[in-house]
Amino acid sequence: MRENVPSPLTSAKEHRAQDFLELVERARRGRLKIYLGFAAGVGKSYRMLEEAHALRLRGVDVVLGFIETHGRSETQALTEGLEAVPLREFSYRGVTLKEMDVEAILKRRPQVVIIDEVAHTNVPGSKNNKRYQDIGAVLEAGINVVCAFNIQHLESLNDLVARVTGVRVRETVPDAFLKQADQVVTLDLDVEDLLERLRAGKIYAPDKIAWALANFFQSRNLATLRELALREVAESLDRSTAAVTAASASEATRAKSRSGKVMVCLSSNPPHARTLLRRGSRLAGRLNTAWYVVHVETPDEAPHLIDATVQRKLLANIELAKDLGAEVVRLRADQPVEALLAFARSHAVSDILIGRGHDTFFQQLFRRSFTLRMVAQAGGFDLHIASFDESRDGESDASEGVQ
Question: Using CA atoms, how far apart are residues 301 and 316, in angstroms rounded to an integer?
């Protein structure tokens, strides 16, 4: 029986139709502008409020969805004359808390809404767990958003920030959120100028200054975070330029110049899965390419056989991979190495990232080690083997960084 295989011409037409559909859908969605800083006090909220006033003077319907002034008089003064959507009150453990009211924003339907503290975790009982998810709902409604957060909250940098600063940031924003931005603006400020603002009481109350200087606001920490913020925006610009160049090139030229994709191999319960996924995200970002996270389910790991705790951790890692912008693929096979490499060859993968396993002596002796088998069989690929250090990659007990 002859298979109904689409002709190359039909495939090309379908591809162009899909491209147009994506443009149409994007036009319906609101535009996203992000102010990216490297620490509290660099001026994110101030700049967003300045932009809100400028838009209002030009006749744009702009409102404040949520703004955090931290008691700074200069920032507070800029909120005057701007319409603010009333916050929603929640009662949690006997305390009344206020959150951004997404439903009220959707009902008000402004052209532009200003939203601060993107990495914020909402009060239990809110429709969405995180504020960046609230922003997604606002964008889907066709409302444009101007928002802000600091580089240390970017999920893929979580391990690096913890290693450099000694602080494990608990509230994070997925890389996919940053990558969907139509415009990213970095707010750069000399480290010494920022420290001077801190000492002058322009960032925190006097009773918090000494603690901040002794912890998160050390010159070395700030210099590293500043470099990360500048690098992230530079890479974002490179991605945008590459996308524009690719869009204007012919299909044949694009196919020829397109780089291979990245594949991260995820087992059911690796001890350093989150670190591995973050490294995969950074590698794909440096290569400016798409990436896969692939898990192979062996017969011993069928849903009715796998431990419930392991299953929960696997699902959590899959969700993190999606947040980081990966396409997650789950395969079923008796031999994981062969299945992974077959997938890589059929999906234009050029770089494979695996974690270094703790193989026994006998596994290595008889070449049953997953790592050794990958090294032996992954000819034609760039194989990256991530090594983990408990002291560098483990969860830190340090308190969260100053916001």
Answer: 16
233 and 292 belong to one structural domain: no
Check: CB of residue 109 under 8 Å from CB of residue 117: no
Q: Is the pTM of this model over 0.70?
A: no
Q: What is the distance between the alpha carbons of residues 203 and 273, in angstroms, rounded to a whole number? A: 36
Residue 69 CB neighbour total at 10 angstroms: 16
Tokens 């995820």 sit on residue: 266
Q: C-alpha distances in angstroms, 190 versus 69, 196, 225, 378?
A: 21, 10, 12, 46
Q: How far apart are CA 13 and CA 3, in angstroms?
A: 20
Give ∠ CA 136-113-204 in degrees, rounded to 5: 100
DSSP 354: E
Residues 231, 331, single domain; the answer is: no
Residue 149 exposure: Cα atoms within 13 Å on the Cβ side: 21
DSSP 113-163: EEE--TTPBPPTTSSSSBHHHHHHHHHHTT-EEEEEEEGGGBGGGHHHHHH
Check whether residue 230 and residue 266 sit in a common domain.
no
CB within 8 A of 133, min separation 6: which ones? none
**CA separation for the pair 276, 261 (Å, rounded):** 16
Q: Report the amino acid identity of residue 392.
A: R
pLDDT along the chain (403 residues), means of 10: 44 50 64 93 94 94 94 91 93 84 96 96 89 96 95 89 86 88 89 92 89 88 89 65 46 46 87 88 84 89 76 88 88 91 92 76 54 88 82 40 37
CA distance 275 to 391: 13
**Residues 126, 355: contact at Cβ < 8 Å?**
no
Domain extent at residue 356: 259-393
**Degrees (nearest 5) of the Cα angle 381, 385, 386?**
140
